[in-house]
Amino acid sequence: MRWDVEAGATWHAVIVDLLARVNFALGDELPDEINKATAPIGLDVTVYLVDHEQRRLWPLPRQGKPPPPPMSVDGSLAGRAFASVHTQVPDRDAVPYRMWLPLIDGAERLGVVEVLVDPPPADPARFQRWCESLVGLLGHLVTVKMPYGDTLHRTRRTRAMSAAGELLTQLLPPLTFSAHRLSISAVLEPCYDVGGDAFDYAVDGPVARMMVLDAMGRGLGASLTCATALGALRAARRDDHGLYAMARAADAALIEQFPDLRFVTGVLTELNMDSGLLRYINAGHPAPLLMRGAKAVRDLPGGRRLPLGIEDSRIVVGEEILEPGDRLLLYTDGVVEAYDQSGDRFGVERLVDLAERCAAAGMPGPETLRRLAHTVLAHQDGPPTDDATLLLLEWSPQAAERTQL
Amino acid sequence: MNEQIPVPGRRREPASGPHGELGVAVDVDEREDHVLVKVHGVIDFWSAGPLQEQVNWALQGRRPHLVFDLQEVTFVDSTGLGLLVSVHRRAETGGGWLHLARPSPQLRRVLEATNLDRFFHLYADVGSATGDA
C-alpha cells in the first residue's frame, strides 16, 4: 500500500511502532530503531547531538552507513535549526526533500535531526508539522536512554571529562527549562573541566527558584565543596524551607564537612510570578543584573551576606518588584574576571552590552547564553582558568515560546 | 610595574617570578606583642599551602596576634581568600586576632565583592594595624 505522509493515521502507525521498538533499545540502537519505524513511509532520519561546548553537531552512527561529518553550529543550516529552534529547509524543490529539525527535550537543546523523504511531500507545511511532532518525541527518547549507557554521552564529548566535571555536571538540571510563563537558561564553562561552579532551579506553581554557586579553590576540591553546598541547598528547598534557612543549611553542611574551612559564594533567588516579588540572598557574589525591555536597568544590590560556609546571622533578604517581561541575569565572577593576553578584563560592561543586543534581537535564552559564554572564552584567548557560569531568567510567555518548536 | 602583575587566574604552572617558584615570599618580624607578616607576590591556589606552612608556627602559641601587611600582594584568588579566612578563624579561636593592613586595590575589590570586608579587620596602614600608631 502507498502511505500518505501527510495523513494522521500514517504517523500514528509510525509512532506506535517506534514506541514498541524503543522499549528494549540501547542508546546506540536508537538510530536504527527509528529508521526501521520510519522506513515504511520513506523517511530517512539522522540524529545529531550537540557537544558540550555547543560548537558542533555530531551524528549518531547507523549500521551499514558511513557516518556523515559533524556540522558546525555557527555557519550551517543544521546549526541554524539548533540555534534558532526553528526547522530549516535548504531547498524546497530538491529531491529527496530535506529538512533540519531542532532536537529538544522540553526546551533543552540536544542537537538536530536531518529528515530526508522521497518522493517530496505534496503538502510540505503539514508534513513538517508531523515531522516536528516525531522529532519532539525523539528528543524525549534520547533523554530517556541517556542514563543507561555511555555511547550517547561519548557522542557529546570532544575530549575526556575531568573527574571534577563528571561529578558536578551530573548534579545539574538541564541547561534550559521553559513553562507557560517563563524560560530559564544556563551555561557553564569550561564544560569538560568545571570545578566549583553550579546552578540550579525549580519551578512550582507561581514560584521560580534559581541559584548560581561558585566554590573557592579549583578542580575536584572545589567541585566537592560545591556539591556539598548544592546538596544542602536543594534538600532544604525541597523540604519547603525559604532562602534564609537554605543558606543556613549550606553553612551547616560546609562547616561540618570541611574543618579546613571552605566557602561558596552564590546568589539564591525566588520569584513569585503572581505578585512579581523577587526575594534574594547574595552570599558574596556578583549582584544579579535586572533587564527590563532589552535594557539592563540595574544591579540588585541587596540581600548581602558572607559567603556560604561562613556563618552570618546578619542577613536581610533582598526584595525587588519585577514586571512581566523582565529578565534576570545571574553570573559568577569567572565571567567578568576573564582576562585577555594584555590583561584587559572582560568586565560587566561587555556582558551588559552583549546581553542587551541578544535581547533586542529576540534571541532564544539558551542561544543568548551560548553566545555570551563563547564571547567570554574568545576574550580569554586561551584555556579558561576560572569557571564561568551564567543563568538567565526570562519572565514572559514569548521567551518560553522562543525555546520551543 | 605593570608587567609584574600576573594575569589573574592564568597560572597553570607555578610561577617563576621575583618571589620564587611559588610566586610568594614572606618576611616575618616577631615583635613583643604581635607577629608582623609582610607578604610579597601572589596568594593563590599554588601558593596558599606554602604560605600557610610559614605562618602555622605563629598560630600555635597562646593568643596569637598577627598582622599581615598586604601592600606587596599583587593578586589573591578564592583559595587565597580561603587561607586568610582560615588564619583569621584560627587566630580568634585561640583568643587572638588577625589584622590585615594595606590591602592592594585588587584584594580590596575581591573583599568587597565577597562581603568579606566586613569579616576581616582591615587597616589602612601597618601602624594602626599593630596598635603602634
List its traits:
heterodimer, A: 405 residues, alpha+beta, Beta-Lactamase, Phosphatase 2c, domain 1, 2 domains, 6-stranded mixed beta sheet, 12 helices, B: 133 residues, alpha/beta, Transcription Regulator spoIIAA, 5-stranded mixed beta sheet, 4 helices, 32% helix
Structure overview:
The complex is a heterodimer of chains A (405) and B (133). Chain A has 405 residues and is α+β, with helices and mostly antiparallel strands. Chain A folds into two domains: 148 residues, Beta-Lactamase; 240 residues, 4-Layer Sandwich (Phosphatase 2c, domain 1), CATH 3.60.40. Chain A has twelve helices and 17 strands. A six-stranded antiparallel beta sheet of chain A has the order 6-7-17-16-12-13. In chain A, strands 8, 9, 10, 11, 14 and 15 form a six-stranded mixed beta sheet that branches. A five-stranded antiparallel beta sheet of chain A has the order 3-2-1-5-4, sandwiched between helices. The longest helix of chain A has 22 residues. The two termini of chain A are 32 Å apart. The model of chain A has no long low-confidence stretch (mean pLDDT 94). The N terminus of chain B is likely disordered. The chains are: A alpha+beta (405), B alpha/beta (133).
